[in-house]
Amino acid sequence: MLKIAGFIISLFLVGIILLRVPKENVGLASFATKSDILGSPSSAQRSLNILTAFGILIYFGIALKLNLTNN
Fold first, then answer.
1. Which residue among 11, 23, 46, 65 is the one 20 to 30 A from 40 at the CA level?
2. pLDDT in tens, 44-60
3. Domain extent for 41
């Protein structure tokens, strides 16, 4: 069960990281501002930061639990 949760969290983290738009890439930045998928850029950045930090903490917790149970 924890392995499945760890896999889902890792996919979630990959998705969140891919949603971050690099500032130096003009094409993606213009798409993000025109589509308005995530709302205003500042609130979207803050939300992505919070979700990423939360996901990383959950992933580390699951990895630690799996590592301790396997030993």
1. 11
2. 778 878 888 999 999 99
3. 2-70
Q: What is the pTM of this model?
A: 0.67
Distance, CA of 17 to CA of 49 (rounded, Å): 9
Burial, 9: exposed, middle or buried (Cβ in 10 Å; 0-12, 13-18, 19+)? buried
Q: How many CB atoms lie within 10 A of CB 12?
A: 16
Residue found under tokens 């709302």: 39
- Counting the structural domains of the chain, the total is 1
DSSP state, residue 1: -
The closest alpha carbon to 53, from 5, 11, 16, 6, belongs to: 16
The angle formed by the CA atoms of residues 11, 47 and 56, to the nearest 5 degrees, is: 40
